[in-house]
Amino acid sequence: MAKIVLPLRGGPPPEPPFGGLGEAGWVRGFTFYDFVQRAEQHRAELESAFRECPLPAAVVASLASFPRQVRVLALLDAGDPASCRFIARAERVFTHSARIWMRAFDAPACADLVARYAPQGKDLPVLVFFGEDQQEFARHRLSDIVPAATDIEPGSPGSAAKAEALALVHALHLSLATYAASAS
């Protein structure tokens, strides 16, 4: 009788893709549309932040021709208006590309994701980008986005919000452009 030899593999099993979330884990998150439908108390503010996010024409053009698939995990506190505005503005950017897909995860319901991506709790909201290889390639937190100098008149209505939105747009665009260029 032949002896059966099982192959040995050392170490822990490989981590599921997308930072441990796995394919099935994405259903825990919400599309932006579903998130807005559930956010009754912040709905008007979400819609306003989405609608009023300024997008330079060059950013829109590059997103429209974005060549690679990207998934974005948006971890936020749905009860925090600043978190909601951040996610709404990010979604506004992503809607210009058919290849970028975002899911919103409410932190109180996702302790495992908070432990991984915002262990201090104060690091919310956070956007985590996963490429075609299902590995993280970028991460952005609201606290890391510093409004850049713009030609927006200080003190004009909404000037701080517009500067913050433009800073977010430029940070996201830079990460995505760097990722797209890495394919070449």
What structural keywords apply?
four-stranded mixed beta sheet, 4 strands, globular
Walkthrough of the structure:
The chain has a 4-stranded mixed beta sheet with strand order 2-1-3-4, sandwiched between helices. The protein contains 7 helices and 4 strands, in the order ααααβαβαββα. With 184 residues, the protein is of the alpha+beta class. The N and C termini lie far apart (54 Å). Helix 3 (43-51) crosses helix 5 and helix 5 (81-94) crosses helix 7. It has helices spanning 22-25, 32-38, 43-51, 57-64, 81-94, 111-117, 159-181; strands at 70-76, 100-106, 126-130, 136-141. 39% of the residues lie in helices and 14% in strands. The longest helix has 23 residues, at 159-181. The protein is globular and about 80 Å long. It has a single domain, classed as Glutaredoxin (3-Layer(aba) Sandwich), CATH 3.40.30.10. The mean pLDDT is 83.
Number of strands: 4
Beta-strand share of residues: 5-15%
CATH hierarchy, class? Alpha Beta
What's the CATH architecture? 3-Layer(aba) Sandwich
State the fourth-level CATH superfamily: Glutaredoxin
Shape: globular
First and last CA, distance: 54 Å
Number of domains: 1
- Describe the main β-sheet briefly: 4 strands, mixed
Low-confidence parts, pLDDT < 50 over ≥5 residues?
Answer: none
**Arrangement of strands in the largest sheet:** 2-1-3-4
Radius of gyration: 19 Å
Question: What structural class do you assign from the helix and strand content?
Answer: alpha+beta
Please provide the ordered H/E string of secondary-structure elements.
HHHHEHEHEEH
